[in-house]
TrEMBL record:
Source organism phylogeny: Bacteria, Bacillati, Bacillota, Clostridia, Lachnospirales
Name recorded for this polypeptide: Methylated-DNA--protein-cysteine methyltransferase
Catalytic activity: a 4-O-methyl-thymidine in DNA + L-cysteinyl-[protein] = a thymidine in DNA + S-methyl-L-cysteinyl-[protein]; a 6-O-methyl-2'-deoxyguanosine in DNA + L-cysteinyl-[protein] = S-methyl-L-cysteinyl-[protein] + a 2'-deoxyguanosine in DNA
Source organism of this protein record: Eisenbergiella porci
Keywords, in A-Z order: Cytoplasm, DNA damage, DNA repair, Methyltransferase, Transferase
Keyword Ribonucleoprotein included in the entry's annotation: no
Family per similarity comment: Belongs to the MGMT family.
InterPro entries assigned to the protein according to its UniProt record, in alphabetical order: MethylDNA_cys_MeTrfase_AS, MethylDNA_cys_MeTrfase_DNA-bd, MethylDNA_cys_MeTrfase_DNAb, MethylG_MeTrfase_N, MGMT, MGMT_N_sf, WH-like_DNA-bd_sf
Statement: the UniProt record of this protein carries the keyword DNA damage: yes
Start and end residues of each Methylated-DNA-[protein]-cysteine S-methyltransferase DNA binding domain: 82-167
């Protein structure tokens, strides 16, 4: 079992989830997120006041106030395969107010795995299933051509987060429906 609480943010209501000890953050999902809570198989019980929730809410307050907190400030324990965990570590390395492409992540993963190349679709799947939104900054990943694709919380939320961080949006665009990465 896991505990959960909510946090009202400028991009919508967030659900926070932690382990039973209240010491490890396992999830942060937007209310409308495509894979909301999908890594929590045992269910969640509402319980505010857990230590990690207080720390996470403080982190989110600072983030939405324009400060630049980093993921390392929180005890993160996202549930996922070894491959996904490694992709999420790469996401945590993306500097505030910068973006990276799926292809760039694929190159980094290929190098880590001793391969010459890596499937962009595999990277997209790992990025899209990130269970700790905003803190593990999957919103900072864009298509090679500057397309704002692949955010499970919705493109409007992705745009708002990038604008909040001061990302230069002039070379980024929302693709027409049905276009690929």
């Amino acid at each position: 079992m896991y505990y959960s609480t909510t946090y009202p943010s400028p991009v919508g209501l967030l659900t926070l989830a932690c382990d039973l000890t209240g010491s490890k953050l396992v999830g942060v999902w937007l209310e409308v997120q495509k894979y909301h809570g999908n890594t929590i198989m045992d269910g969640m019980t509402e319980k505010s006041g857990m230590p990690v929730f207080d720390r996470t809410k403080d982190w989110l307050d600072r983030y939405f106030d324009g400060e630049k907190p980093v993921a390392d400030e929180l005890p993160l324990a996202p549930v996922g395969s070894k491959f996904r965990q490694e992709v999420w570590r790469i996401l945590c390395e993306i500097p505030y107010s910068e973006v990276i492409t799926y292809g760039d992540i694929a190159k980094k993963m290929a190098a880590k795995m001793g391969r010459t190349s890596m499937s962009g679709q595999a990277i997209g799947g790992a990025v899209g299933h990130n269970p700790v939104s905003i803190i593990i900054p999957c919103h900072r990943v864009v298509g090679a051509n500057g397309s704002l694709t692949g955010y499970a919380g919705g493109i409007p939320a992705k745009i708002k987060l990038l604008e909040l961080e001061g990302v230069d949006m002039s070379r980024l665009f929302v693709p027409k429906r049905g276009t690929a990465l």
